[in-house]
Amino acid sequence: MQELITLRGENSKTYDLGNGKRQAVISIGAIHYKDNYADASEQWKDINLNWEGNRIVKTPYELTLEGNKITVRDKKSGEVSTIELLEIGGIPIPAQAWGKSKGLAKAFATDLEIVAGNTRVSFARILKSDKAPVEATYRVTGNIPLRVGARDEEGELPVEWAVKDGILTETFKPDRPIKYPVRIDPTLTIQPSAKDNYLAQAAATTNYGTTTDLRLRSYNAANQRCILEFSLASLPAGAVITSATLELYYYLLLGTDPVGRTYWAYRLTRTDWVEIESCWDYYKGTTVWTAAGGDYTTDDGASTAVPASYGWMSWNVLAQTQYAQTNSITVEFLVRDGTEDNATIYGAKFYSKDYTDDPTLCPKLVIEYTTVTPKTSSDTGAGVDAKVTYPAVTHSRSETGSGAETMPARGFLRPETGSGVDTKASGNPLVSFPVRSDVGSGIDALTALFGILTRSDTGLGVDAKLALAVALIKADIGSGLDSTPMPSAILAGNETGSGIDAIIARLLASFDIGTGIEVSSLLKELFASELGWGSDSLIAKIEMPTKGGGMKLWT
Fold first, then answer.
1. Exposed, middle or buried: residue 268 (CB in 10 Å: 0-12, 13-18, 19+)?
2. I need a labelling partner for 234 at 20 to 30 A (CA). Which of 143, 171, 429, 509 fits?
3. Spatial distance between the Cα atoms of 302 and 97, rounded to a whole number of angstroms
């Protein structure tokens, strides 16, 4: 399966499945970046979070570490923000490359770590034991969104934080037994392209939008649900979605093993929820959901059973994805246990988009689609099919080569090798006259009243049947001048290796590459001529074929 690099989006990769099918793997956060986001022609590149000296640059941002200070520049917006550690437990921290020093960890039972993700940078303070100070201060500048969180291996923990006069103060205030180490991490969020979160009923006003996991749980008055959003912006216009699968990586159970339980993925009906503000009670700020725990509909819901072992879980969300495409909105999901408020804790943890150890395990929406061939497209190459209808009297066609094609009154002339300009002059046309210009072959248009079918065989030629003009002209491969200037029409064949077909009467004609069939609407006789080129059907007398591949016909 080959990636189509030119079809990359900020948060998606597209693969060729063959036979006109493609697969788009859409992530919630960015997986590609540009150095210049203002340049539409710049190719999206894979994010690389490796340090190059004291910098990380192959991301949607530039990160620089100098002493105890990080500087982050958002490449898309140009915003620059900094976080500089000043004190731990009221004691000033020297402006040194602390990452290379073991003294800090020993004196404060604290480690420091810079964590770079695809769209986030955290200045993490890691408390190794209860001897670690619970308070720290930082100098912060800039407008990139900042928030502070704390957690141990059991989940989120309370931390109070505030910024005043450019100084960030954070204080760890646990409300339950702790399993060290504890991570407290002021975090800058760079251009989030989509979002995920989990909602906890027992902590109804607590936000978990920056955690590395998503949680589902069924337990009496302490249920947990996941909410996720995916953008379809990377799909091409006219894409016909044939399958869509939501995939979450299940890596840890919570409480009793939930194997066999049914988890449902429903369509979240609100799209304006805020990742770092939403919680069980609120979808943003202090604005409440219509129903606590998230607003959703069970229409087109998808279910799957929890497997016996860890790994990917998937939901068939075709109907929900098609709904989002039809309504030009993001795809929104609320995932929950099918039977909540259980007396026994049943739960599961999945990686969120903020899991940086292995971004391939983050949530994704896998879509397969085909593209609709526009009615103006051609079989080989590209082209335009045009139909000029009465009372319009002019149509022009430019190709390579030279010459002129004219249709005086009710006749038609075809030039030799190459082509040039087709002009439909005045002459009281009775029906539409289709003209085809492209390289290769293409679409044949059948118009009304008497029916007109046009076909260019191999790169050149125009076949036209005019309503009552009862003349069909075909220029095959090579050269030649075909003319039927009168309704009675005399057909001459003077090309090498091919011939001219003419029909007298109301005739629908189609010439394919190599073969073809002409069928008269008043079919009387069928005559086969020119091996390999087709059949001529006529409602007249056939006297004799002429040398050179033609036939002489009259009424």
1. buried
2. 143
3. 51
Task: Yes or no: say if 266 and 336 are a contact pair by the CB < 8 Å rule.
Answer: yes
Q: Which residues pair with 258 in a beta bridge?
A: none
CA gap 107, 113 in Å, rounded: 16
Phi, psi of 323 (to 5 degrees): -60, -45
Q: What does the chain come to in residues?
A: 555
Note whether 455 and 513 are within 8 A (CB). no
Question: In the block, which residue shows the tokens 């986030």?
Answer: 120
Q: What is the pLDDT of residues 156-185, one digit of tens each?
A: 899 999 999 999 999 999 999 999 999 999
Q: Which amino acid is at 350?
A: F
Is the CB of residue 354 less than 8 Å from the CB of residue 49? Answer: no
Q: CA-CA distance, 222 to 342, in Å (whole number)? A: 9
Q: Are 311 and 303 in contact (CB under 8 A)?
A: no
Helix (H, G, I), strand (E, B) or coil at 189: strand
Name the E strands within 98-145: 110-116, 120-127, 135-141
pLDDT tens for 456-501 read 333 333 343 333 333 334 433 433 334 333 333 343 444 343 333 4
CA distance 170 to 174: 13
Which of 524, 527, 472, 540 shows the shortest CA–CA distance to 500?
Answer: 472
